[in-house]
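Appendix B: a complete holo record

For completeness, this appendix reproduces one full record from the ligand-bound portion of the collection. The bound molecule is pyridoxal-5'-phosphate. The inputs are the chain sequence and the ligand SMILES; the output is the full three-dimensional arrangement of the complex, encoded as structure tokens. No fields have been trimmed.
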Amino acid sequence: MLDFEKMANGGLARIKPYQAGKPIEEVKRELGLDDVIKLASNENPFGMSKKAVEAAKKAIDEGNFYPDSNGFYLKHALHVKFGYDMKRITLGAGSNELINLLFEAFVNKDVNVVLPDYSFCVYGMEATINGAQVKSVPLNDWKVDLNKVLAAIDSDTRIVAFANPSNPIGTAIPSADMKSFLKKVPENTLVVIDEAYNEFNSGDATYEDSARWLNSYPNLVISRTFSKAYGLAGLRIGYMLSDPGIVSVLDRLRAPFNVNAVAQAAAIAALDDDEFIKKTVDNNTKERARYMEFFKAQGVKAIDSKANFVAADFAPHDAQKLAAELLKRGVIVRPLLGYKLRDILRISIGTPEQNDRFFKETAELLKTL
Ligand SMILES: *Cc1c(COP(=O)(O)O)cnc(C)c1O
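The structure of the chain with pyridoxal-5'-phosphate bound, as generated:
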């Protein structure tokens, strides 16, 4: 018998597969339900911008052609919209692909990777796959403690990575703290800031676009996505901002046509729909406050979130049972068992109607659990 686990490279044998949120169709099929809502994968509850839908449909008509391998028009649109230097942009099939490429390019068995506890699981998986040791740093009241992170960095630390706002926890590192942290990190350690939830945090008065710091810190890498606020999760498209030297490395590693033409066209159109983003972010801000009120009223400890989800500690109620019962009632939420957080569920913020349904069902279930 062939032992593929032995034959596979590096740390693959030690990796558990990524646990995705349950798809709506699967829940409908398995439980025989027809009205199911998914508050589990931080997707946009309003769908895609109409402009993006139109652009995507048009692009399908030319599906016989390979996409623009360099994504010129999308990079140009990002330049026009936000002023980003096109030479600093790498496009990916979701920001997840870019994170994978970055780790594959820079991480190996001779280096280590520093990650706060409860980081987005992909960083740890990629560190392990590429043979590196992971140094974990405990959170402080669910927040990243940058002094502890700094203390964990040594001369072999190739990458320190965090999502800001974080996922699955939802807390954010203020811009001022991040800037003083960047000043202290050794220059041969890459600082990866994964800003998948950037748009939901940017209303904060103290928020600065971290892309402005790229000129001062060649070791700074920022990852962004069209999957969350822009609503293009199913099309798979994201971008990374970094020193052009890193762009050049990733360009050689990535597959030549890694981002499909439909996704590129949709992303360009999505960037041009400020109204859709505003509607999305405004709804999220308002509804997030309703979640906090709801949890307070229920005596559930919710973690202060800057993202489009709320993580809440249901102890002494049985969170796993709650998630299972909600599922039976057609509401999919996300247990954090993979993170060994048994009492915590992560709930993505939906439309007001979807959230009402979560509140009603949860309030009822909490009386019995
Ligand atoms: C959702 C998410 C991503 C992945 O986004 P894609 O662009 O869809 O690959 C990356 N990082 C974090 C922290 C996320 O929550």
